[in-house]
Design goal:
The complex is a heterotrimer of chains A (about 325), B (about 350) and C (about 400). With about 325 residues, chain A is of the alpha/beta class. Chain A contains 13 helices and 12 strands. In chain A, the strands form 2 sheets. An 8-stranded mixed sheet of chain A has the order 6-7-8-3-9-10-12-11, sandwiched between helices. A 4-stranded antiparallel sheet of chain A has the order 2-1-4-5, covered by helices on one side. In chain A, strand 4 (about 65-70) and strand 5 (about 75) form a beta hairpin. The longest helix of chain A is centred in the middle third of the chain and has 18 residues, at about 190-205. The longest helix of chain B is centred in the middle third of the chain and has 38 residues, at about 205-245. The model of chain B has no long low-confidence stretch (mean pLDDT about 85). Chain B starts with a helix and ends with a helix. Chain B is globular. Chain B has 16 helices and no strands. Mean pLDDT of chain C is about 80; it is low at about 1-20. Chain C contains 14 helices and no strands. The chains are: A alpha/beta (about 325), B mainly alpha (about 350), C mainly alpha (about 400). Chains in contact: A-B, B-C. Chains A and B meet through helix 2 and helix 4 of A and helix 12 and helix 13 of B. The structure holds adenosine-5'-triphosphate (ATP) and magnesium ion. Magnesium ion (MG) binds near residues 47 and 181 of chain A. Adenosine-5'-triphosphate binds near residues 14, 21, 23, 44 and 280 of chain A.
Chain lengths: ~325, ~350, ~400
């Protein structure tokens, strides 16, 4: 069976006046349909840019996807024309963004913005689309959905706006929903509600979800697999059990070490590992994490470790010292 | 919405009163006695005095302290300013000192001429300026962008009276395509309804008149439109660029909307807010510029008329003309505020 | 201010340091932009050429007259008809247009520069203070001053009616008392009644010396004054009044207002400068005010306030350097606008007094000869206006890009 999404050697660069920002470096992984994939990593490590690259929405200029393949359902999206891509966006792959306050257009009603998405990809009359939009708003738990269609975004609270964004994302029943830190801008109780909502919707509708976050607690609860990113690359990836219980990368360990009781505190944020992430304008020759790593050796500074599969297909890590780490545990 | 409009109306009132006050002050402060100006320098003192009596020019400006000291409270308030305000309320603007024609009569003919010219010029400025701005923004940092931006900066830098003269030289004198001045050719009649010739000729299906009036308005309108056109183009560009950075534009693209829908539906409406404001403010530039264009193109509007009035100390003309121009400007900007509320729901619902 | 607290040093340092690198950055961006370089070149060209001409190329307009050379087209090679070189031709009095354009620049640019200085000075100060006090509470002393002044202004009407200047002083004192008892909060209504009665008494008692009618009017006005003074007038109120005033000036079409001012003052170059300067005041006032409003919420201002720096010091040491960029841009573009307005006034015959050369009035002198084919008399002064204005606009545009913090990410 071909995977739903398969990314191979994706590279995205920003050509700025200060130099080339290497935002995504050789990212490869795949996702099955119906799967929930968590993507974690420090701020600025390229999570959003890699997701935008899938949609081909990286701001251009200065951004460019310089290399790679993005296979969705057996088709390489990177070979698609802009016209073909338009059909994919919103219908096969939908995306919701971090800040619901600014992600909805303030001068159109919420209903209009959902109807617009519906009519773009489905052959629907205005009335049908409107009815469906009402159903969607009700589905994401907005009370009095029918009437709220005519409200403008500023008349919604932050949580409601994010619900509306989700409704918009789900409108065309995408196979893949990319949620880029959908709860970061919301307060804790609302965050929990949104997470529950997405879990419930996933149970009902069965789409695959890519959940980008800082929140390791939530991701442990909902994801099937996790990709840990550092400096534009995946440095550890595997199912939730392996990532949390058999951690093999010093960076992931640092992230988890700074996390108090996993399953009890859903609001826990990634606390940073000591030191700063490398400058994406000038990545080191060897392992990007070496400068902050306690296991660093000559080799780490000289050679970049590849992402190797360990424990069969369920776990992969990019570190020269993973065996040493496994032994010391 | 209606509350918003009412609030706006109330906030305009002090400005309107202030404007009438300033106009009043200016006329009285300009040196030179209008009675003398009217009768000529050799007039007898007696006749000058009679005239001043007749126009109320011998009353105090605001309040009559001496009348009050004698216990005459009515006399206290019977001043030039109070008389002026009273007359304004019934739209009595007096008559021109030199020509003895009621100001209102002249305004009825001249004001539409200026309005027609100004609105036509604004129309040109908008239909050219906004697309240039959009195209520049959509092609940011390309040669198209640089050319249109330097081009619109040339427009902003244009001395419009000079441009008008160059137009006359080229199109009227050398090529002889268009008339050099005036509003209409001798012999062409347009039945007056609104006194806006273009409108009237359409209303009466007078195509000969329409063609003639269009030929006359085109050159002055282009001259007048140049500066606002440049400003509108630049404003549209920068405001489009701002909006195109917004998150909701990314959302719109993520939905699968195409380039042009994103640009014209999602970006343009947001970007139009500052543009609308600038259009309102530019209306002032247009009305002011009318003084110059009307001079060059012998356009029978109020700009030139007020200018002559100022130089000739013809108070009623200055008063009536300036008042009308200022009120139009305030009115247009009031309308802009209302437009704003239509375009931006956040204002409408606050 | 003998001692300097450590906090103060950091506060000042913060603002200044941030700015030094900003200016260097901005300068680099400025000279790397083609359009800005073109602007600088044009501006420098006009400034230098007119200044040099003014000081080193003598020209006496009053003696420049030669009917035999009336309206000759541009002549580069002297011939029988035109025995001298006139690259731009000659005007209706046979004067060399090239020479007059070069010398006219001195006048045109001078009008622009002086006019903008006037607008900038008055508008800038107005904006600075109104913006500042709109955001930041007045100190006690400032409040006493403002209320006293308000009392004095309002009371002077009553004083004028009764011909008793002393009344104005009483009202000023009433204002100071109102400010002094600002904590007298036993119900706003009560406070208002008390001050209204006090005002009414001042007006009526003093007015009664003149006549009963005067006493009556003074009583009414005094009561209104007192009631107004009892209101908690804050900086915001005064700033609103100023801005309304600016709105009123802005409601008049620029040229008409300038023409009216010139008509009031009489024609002449200096009067033109004043007229254009006055008309420009509101633009700078509004711009400065909004810049101040956005800056005065910044940390360093709040920090300076919290360590107890005086308001004057905060305004001139901390706020002014931080709002300079929009003002520099506006000033540059304002110069362009002022040169245009000056030319317009000159064209209408309200600028330089003939035969003094000035671009606008050169156009005004010659345009009637256009129909008889003398295009050169109109073309060249106009080009001079357009290019000098364009130069300042290009420079201002480049400055905006260079200084715009939004592009600094
Ligand atoms: N338009 C752009 N121009 C230049 N560099 C950019 C641009 N967008 C992103 N980058 C760079 O790409 C890198 C990755 O950014 P990205 O937004 O993907 O981070 P992220 O992992 O999503 O962080 P966060 O958790 O804060 O959202 C950053 O270093 C950023 O500076
Ligand atoms: Mg992100």
């Amino acid at each position: 069976m071909t995977p739903l999404l398969e990314i191979k050697n994706l590279k995205t660069r920003f050509f700025t006046s200060e130099g080339v920002v290497k935002a995504v470096n050789n990212v490869s992984y795949s996702m099955e349909s119906g799967e929930i994939l968590g993507v974690v990593g420090e701020s600025g490590c390229g999570k959003s840019v890699h997701a935008l690259s899938i949609m081909q929405l990286v701001q251009d200029p200065p951004g460019k996807i310089t290399n790679g393949e993005v296979w969705l359902d057996g088709k390489d999206l990177l070979t698609f024309s802009e016209k073909e891509m338009k059909k994919i966006r919103g219908s096969d792959v939908a995306m919701i963004f971090q800040d619901p306050m600014t992600s909805l257009n303030p001068v159109f009603t919420v209903g209009f913005q959902i109807v617009e998405a519906l009519r773009l990809h489905n052959d629907m009359t205005k009335a049908e689309a409107r009815e469906r939009a009402g159903e969607l708003l009700a589905l994401v738990g907005i009370p009095g959905a029918e009437q709220r269609l005519d409200d403008y975004p500023h008349q919604f609270s932050g949580g409601m706006r994010q619900r509306a964004m989700i409704a918009m994302g789900l409108s065309c029943e995408p196979k893949l929903l990319i949620a880029d830190e959908p709860t970061t801008a919301l307060d804790v109780t609302i965050q929990a509600q949104i997470v529950d909502l997405v879990k419930k919707l996933q149970d009902d509708l069965g789409m695959a979800i890519m959940w980008i976050t800082h929140d390791l607690g939530v991701i442990a609860e909902m994801a099937d697999r996790i990709n840990v990113m550092y400096a534009g690359a995946i440095i550890e990836s595997g199912n939730v059990r392996n990532i949390y219980k058999k951690t093999r990368h010093p960076y992931t360990m640092g992230l988890l070490g700074s996390l108090p009781r996993l399953d009890e505190d859903p609001g826990a944020e990634l606390l940073s590992v000591p030191g700063l992430p490398p400058d994406l304008l000038a990545l080191p020759k060897g392992c990007a994490f070496a400068a902050r790593c306690g296991y660093r050796t000559e080799k780490c500074l000289e050679e970049k470790p590849p992402l190797e599969e360990i424990d069969g297909r369920e776990h992969a890590v990019a570190c020269w010292h993973w065996e040493e780490i496994a032994g010391s545990k | 919405m209606s509350r918003y409009i009412i609030r706006r109306i109330f906030s305009v009132i002090p400005t309107l009163i202030g404007v009438t006050f300033v106009i009043f002050m200016f006329q009285r402060l300009i040196p030179g006695d209008p009675a003398v100006a009217m009768l000529g320098e050799h007039a007898t003192e007696e006749s000058v005095e009679r005239l001043r009596e007749q126009f109320g020019l011998n009353r105090p400006l605001f309040l009559d302290r001496e009348a009050l000291a004698e216990g005459d409270i009515n006399g206290f308030f019977d001043s030039q300013y109070v008389r002026y305000m009273k007359r304004l309320l019934v739209l009595d603007m007096g008559e021109s000192i030199h020509r003895r024609i009621p100001v209102l009569e002249t305004l009825k003919i001249r004001f539409p001429a200026t309005i027609e010219l100004a609105f036509f010029a604004m129309f040109i400025a908008i239909i050219i300026g906004i697309p240039i701005g959009i195209i520049s923004a959509a092609n940011r940092n390309t040669p198209i962008d640089s050319i249109s931006m330097v081009g619109s900066l040339v427009g902003v830098s244009m001395p419009i009276f000079w441009l008008g003269l160059m137009e006359i030289m080229l199109f009227a004198v050398m090529l002889q395509w268009l008339p050099a001045g005036g509003r209409i050719s001798v012999g062409v009649e347009i039945e007056s309804i609104t006194n806006l010739y273009l409108v009237d000729s359409i209303l009466t299906a007078n195509w000969v008149g329409f063609k003639d009036a269009s030929q006359h308005i085109i050159l002055p309108a282009i001259a007048l439109a140049t500066i606002p056109m440049g400003i509108i183009a630049r404003m549209t560009r920068s405001s489009m660029l701002d909006v195109l950075q917004e998150d909701y534009i990314r959302t719109a693209k993520a939905k699968g909307l195409g380039h042009s829908l994103v640009l014209f539906r999602h970006a343009l409406k947001n970007a139009s807010l500052p543009v609308v404001t600038i259009v309102g403010l530019q209306m002032g530039t247009l009305l002011a510029g009318a003084v110059l264009t009307e001079t060059i193109f012998s356009w029978p509007g109020i700009g030139r008329w007020v200018y002559d009035g100022i130089l000739g100390r013809d108070y009623p003309i200055v008063q009536g003309g300036t008042l009308v121009i200022a009120f139009v400007f305030i009115g247009v900007n009031f309308f802009v505020d209302i437009m704003y509320a239509f375009l931006d729901p956040r204002i409408r619902y606050n | 201010m003998a001692e300097i607290t450590p906090e103060e040093i950091t506060v000042t340092d913060f603002a200044v340091r941030e700015h030094r690198s900003l200016w260097v950055d901005a300068w680099r961006r400025l000279i790397s932009s083609n359009t800005a370089r073109l602007g600088m070149f044009i501006v420098a060209f006009f400034l230098l050429s007119t200044t040099f001409a003014h000081f080193f190329w003598e020209y006496e307009p009053k003696k420049d007259l030669n009917y035999s050379l009336k309206l000759k087209p541009p002549t580069l090679i002297p011939n029988e008809e035109v025995p001298s070189v006139h690259p731009f031709g000659t005007d209706k009095l046979g004067r060399d247009i090239f020479r007059r354009v070069v010398h006219g620049g001195w006048n045109s640019l001078r009008v622009g520069i002086v006019a903008v200085s006037i607008s900038l000075f008055f508008g800038g100060l107005t904006g600075l203070f109104t913006g500042f006090y709109e955001n930041i509470d007045t100190t006690h002393i400032e409040k006493l001053f403002l209320f006293g002044l308000t009392g004095l202004v309002l009371g002077s009407l009553s004083a004028w009616i009764a011909a008793q200047p002393i009344q104005a002083i009483f009202f000023a004192i009433l204002g100071v008392i109102a400010a002094y008892f600002k904590d007298f909060q036993k119900g706003k209504a009560l406070r208002m009644v008390v001050f209204a009665i006090a005002g009414a008494l001042i007006g009526a008692i003093l007015g009664a010396f003149v006549s009963s009618a005067v006493a009556l009017i003074s009583l009414i006005w005094g009561a209104i004054t007192g009631a107004l003074l009892s209101r908690p007038l804050e900086g915001k109120f005064f700033s609103n009044v100023m801005m309304r005033l600016m709105d009123i000036i802005l409601s008049f079409p620029g040229y008409l207002l300038a023409i009216a001012i010139v008509a009031f003052l009489g024609p002449g170059l200096e009067k033109g400068m004043i007229a254009i300067g006055v008309v420009g005041i509101p633009v700078y006032a509004r711009l400065t005010r909004s810049a101040v409003l956005s800056v005065s919420q910044k940390e360093y201002i709040l920090a300076a306030q919290s360590v107890g720096e005086g308001h004057g010091r905060i305004i001139f040491r901390h706020i002014t350097p931080n709002i300079l960029s929009p003002i520099i841009v506006q000033t540059t573009m304002g110069l362009a606008g002022a040169i245009l307005s000056a030319a317009a006034l000159g064209f209408l015959g309200l600028g330089a007094i003939p035969p003094e050369p000035e671009w606008g009035s050169m156009l005004g002198d010659s345009y009637r000869y256009l129909t008889s084919g003398a295009w050169w008399a109109v073309l060249f002064p106009g080009l001079a206006i357009m290019f000098s204005v364009l130069g300042f606009n290009l420079l201002g545009d480049g400055l905006r890009d260079a200084l715009d913090p939004k592009l600094r990410t």
